[in-house]
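Attaching the record inline, Q. Sequence:
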Amino acid sequence: MKFTAIRKYWFVPDIGDNLKLEDDKQLQIEIIRPTVENQNELSKVSVRKADDGTVTADSKFNVSKILHDCVGEIKNLEVEETSCDGKKSLSKIKNGKELSEAVFYESKALVNLICIEVASDSITESEKKILK
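Structure, as predicted:
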């Protein structure tokens, strides 16, 4: 049996108006696929069975591990921060480590999209574009 693999690829998250931007302006995140050994460290799933027989499952991502080990370069991510005195400063986030230390609105939504992308164990839409 033959399996396919793409070790690294660019992920363009569907957040805000990102997909409407020109390609060179879009937020792009380099995804580094986890090894088989590391896949189990990326998330934890807890399953509960209620008295009535229903089953629920909760999944929790290891965000730190995903951002540090599975996110490489980041293109076109800037954060404009306003200080208490109203002064603005602009910083560019260039990799997963910097993203893990950043503070900005919608960061949770962005990180959730990244975690879902990394944790998926099937060929994603981003990877399909590479295979064409």
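The chain has five helices and seven strands. The beta strands are 8-11, 28-32, 43-49, 55-61, 71-75, 78-82, 88-92.

More tomorrow.
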